[in-house]
């Protein structure tokens, strides 16, 4: 329930309040809250844009098991670099197929 509240604040553009509650959600182990803090720093919403701070929160969220969607992965790649964003299952499967084909030659 705690995590739903900052989403409604975020949608109403009260980013200072959203940051407060996303950080609280993060403290309680909510990896989506942790990632959301990174998003606020990435986008500069309620805070000065700070890609280093965004990277810190993004990495923490990934360490906590956050599974980014396609849009999240774009932000991760911009902040952390091409190799930093974890692969999707499809990308891993495609990569494994290419490796197997190369091994068969």
Give structural attributes:
105 residues, mainly alpha, Serine Threonine Protein Phosphatase 5, Tetratricopeptide repeat, 0% strand, elongated, disordered N terminus
Short description:
By secondary structure, this protein is mainly α. The protein has helices at 4-11, 15-27, 31-43, 51-63, 70-80, 89-104.
Give an overview in words.
The protein has helices at 4-11, 15-27, 31-43, 51-63, 70-80, 89-104. With 105 residues, the chain is mostly helical. The chain has one domain (4-104): Serine Threonine Protein Phosphatase 5, Tetratricopeptide repeat (Alpha Horseshoe). The model is unreliable at 1-5 (pLDDT under 50).
Spell out the blueprint of helices and strands.
Blueprint: H1 4-11, H2 15-27, H3 31-43, H4 51-63, H5 70-80, H6 89-104
Helix pairs in contact: 1-2, 2-3, 3-4
* Discrete helix count: 6
Structural class: mainly alpha
Q: Which oligomeric state applies?
A: single chain
Distance between the amino and carboxyl termini: 54 Å
Unreliable runs, pLDDT <50, ≥5 residues? 1-5
**Could you tell me the radius of gyration in angstroms?**
16 Å
Content of β-strand? under 5%
* CATH top-level class: Mainly Alpha
Instruction: Give average pLDDT, whole number.
Output: 79
Q: Do you know the CATH topology?
A: Serine Threonine Protein Phosphatase 5, Tetratricopeptide repeat
The CATH homologous superfamily name equals Tetratricopeptide repeat domain
- Named at the architecture level, the CATH assignment is Alpha Horseshoe
| Shape field | elongated
Number of domain modules? 1
């Amino acid at each position: 329930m705690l995590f739903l509240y900052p989403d409604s604040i975020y949608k109403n553009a009260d980013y200072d309040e959203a940051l407060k509650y996303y950080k609280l959600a993060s403290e309680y182990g909510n990896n989506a809250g942790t990632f959301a803090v990174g998003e606020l720093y990435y986008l500069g919403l309620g805070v000065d844009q700070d890609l280093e701070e965004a990277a810190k929160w993004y990495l923490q969220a990934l360490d906590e098991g956050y599974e980014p969607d396609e849009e999240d992965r774009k932000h991760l790649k911009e902040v952390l670099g091409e190799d930093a964003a974890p692969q999707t299952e499809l990308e891993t499967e495609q990569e494994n197929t290419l490796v197997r084909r190369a091994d068969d030659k």
